[in-house]
Known about the structure:
The chain starts with 6 loop residues before the first helix and ends with a helix. It has helices at about 5-15, 20-25, 30-45, 50-65, 190, 220-235, 270-285, 315-325, 330-335, 390-400, 420-425, 450-465; strands at about 70, 80-85, 90-95, 105-110, 115-125, 130-140, 150-160, 165-170, 180, 205-210, 245-250, 255-260, 265, 290-300, 340, 345, 370, 375, 405, 415-420, 430-435, 440, 445-450. A hairpin with a 2-residue loop joins β5 and β6. It has 2 domains: about 15-115 and about 270-465, Aminopeptidase; about 115-250, Roll (Aminopeptidase i, Domain 2), CATH 2.30.250. By secondary structure, the chain is of the alpha/beta class. The strands form 5 sheets. It has a 9-stranded mixed sheet with strand order 1-2-3-14-4-15-21-17-19. It has a 7-stranded antiparallel sheet with strand order 8-7-11-5-6-10-9.
Amino acid sequence: MKEEKTAAEILAEKLCMNPQNAALLMSSEEIAKADKFCEGYKEFITLCKTEREAASFAVEKAVNAGFKPFEPGVKYKPGDRVFYLHRNKAAILAVFGKKGLDNGVKIVAAHIDSPRLDLKPNPLYEDSELALLKTHYYGGIKKYQWTAVPLAMHGVVILKSGESLTVSIGEKDNEPKFVINDLLPHLGAEQGKRSLSQGIKGEELNVLVGSRPFKSDKGSELVKLNILNILNEKYGIIEADFLSAELEMVPAYPAADIGFDRSMIGGYGQDDRVCAYPALIAALECKKPEYTVVTVLTDKEETGSDGNTGLNSAYLRYFIEDIAAQQGLNGRDVLRRSECLSADVNAAFDPTFPNVHEKMNACYLNKGVVVTKYTGSRGKGGTSDAGAEFMGKIRMLLDDGEVIWQTGELGKVDEGGGGTVAQYIAKLDVDVVDVGVPVLSMHAPFEVVSKLDVYMAYKAFFAFGAQK
Length: 468
């Protein structure tokens, strides 16, 4: 016989929050749907390891879904779908709504750059008959995590002729990999005395790329010469072409299921492509919304969103001004009536390192997409801090859309913190809040997320664009 609930239990159900594992709240059918959705996501993060590759992937998917290149001056009608590729590193997708732009637009903004190692402008050198490449790390990394793991080279080289050469070496089984060496424990006594952050120094992140000299000729730096000869024969590259190149070293392994239950995904670059992919798919599935929906996949977030492909520049504002002009409106009038989900990740609670989190205000794997009211550091420095009114609206939107969600902060108040693109969207006078996926081992070469959380991010972004 089923026991009746006590008065306290009934009252607790009514008044108290009780976040649960999403697997206990979802049907078997929906869990299967989430797992299937994540197969496409794993393919995305396996294929797209740079911002250029992610932007190109998004545009290709958009074209296949019927999106057309955006043309300023063209008057678009409800249901029209356009894309804008910005300097090959960022992309905007827009679906025009039934309501005029004087009602504002619904923006979802995710970033597609991730921590990595960039080659220096003059990278190739030889030392002790080994050829190596000098790097400059991009974004916040723990440098020691990048040693002794297989690396691939991705990017673009502009040759002296002006020809653009796309490079991807190390991803296929029959392609060579690259590596950064580390000391063996037997000789690492002095290295072991360094602090963890200095265990590997920036100038020690040198990538091993060759060891055989050019034939048996006389001369100096014959190993370097042999590498240049290989690059020249295969790609037409000369050493000076490194000066007009953007080459990135990234982990050379695919995304993978994690756990006996295959409930999680491990892979490189999930901050923030784990939000970019659900945002992209939600945009592609958006047909004839009430409000115009704008999805932004941006660059440079990991280094402060500066530069002309980051959201601290004007390209999003210019895009809004262009579409506003088609309806005889000022861009600022559209923006001040707009709303945005800054689609970015948060740090999931890790029971191995509990002391950096405040458990009541941390986010957890498998408890759904996380709404982060403010980011920043310590005294809320570098954040937009969403207002109560907008938080209330998003709360109702997610509940009505049957999205499993939670809230979270980025660690304890005095532990540190970090920012997102939300602050730059807020500067445009747009209501904005961070909504994204909890991540374990964030900024490591191999990060971990929950499949159910990824799917809930998709549901959240779709519901945001579909609101009436």
